[in-house]
Design a protein that fits this description.
Layout (H helix, E strand, L loop, with lengths): L20 H36 L1 E2 L2 E2 L4 H29 L5 H26 L10 H11 L6 H13 L28
Antiparallel strand pairs: 1-2
Length: 195
């Protein structure tokens, strides 16, 4: 939404004029990180249901979890969920410590948007047709993850934010290191070149 030339009476202002965006931005980042945690909880529940089903359901005289294709899907699901948790916890920790966290929030949200949905899809595949029955909650978590993935920034919006932080910031960017801060006028950036 863009407000251009909107007049607001002084009595209707909450706080000082032109100082609202930083507050909103912090809240959006907090919301995105917490939404990641919610998506991960739903994805983990879907995965647990799929693992239980793979242990119980038999085909060709053995549990379907004994088949390598199902084992690979289960391993991928847990790797995606654990990876998303690591990114989300990092973003939340940085927020709690008062450290810069925009890139970490975007990393977590873009990863969770894709991998939580992929995990829910794999759970559907493991269950087969029963995964789409209304009596089983699997479809419910899938639909919630899909909807949450579109809230507070899509994968592409968060990737654009990461790219902007990596490309548009002055100085050398070293992966695994914080994005350099623009120095005060007249000062030079520290040399970060690897020898």
């Amino acid at each position: 939404m863009v407000f251009d030339r909107v007049r607001v009476p002084a009595a209707a202002l909450i706080g000082r004029a032109n100082e609202g965006w930083p507050v909103i931005e912090r809240m959006l980042d907090r919301g995105a990180a917490l939404l990641c945690a919610q998506m991960l909880g739903a994805a983990r529940r879907d995965a647990e249901m799929a693992f239980d089903y793979a242990r119980m359901r038999e085909a060709f005289g053995q549990p379907i979890g004994a088949f390598q294709a199902i084992q690979h899907m289960c391993a991928d699901m847990i790797i995606w969920i654990d990876g998303g948790e690591l990114l989300t916890y990092e973003a939340l920790w940085r927020m709690d410590q008062g450290l810069p966290h925009r890139v970490e929030v975007s990393q977590a949200k873009s990863f969770c948007n894709e991998k939580c949905l992929a995990s829910a899809r794999s759970a559907q595949i493991i269950h087969g047709g029963i995964g789409f029955m209304m009596e089983l909650d699997l479809h419910l978590w899938y639909r919630r993850i899909a909807a949450w993935g579109m809230r507070l920034g899509t994968t592409y919006e968060h990737r654009a934010r990461i790219a902007a932080a990596l490309i548009d910031e002055p100085g050398l960017v070293v992966l695994g290191q914080p994005v350099p801060v623009v120095p005060p006028a007249g000062e030079a950036l520290p040399d970060r070149r690897v020898a």
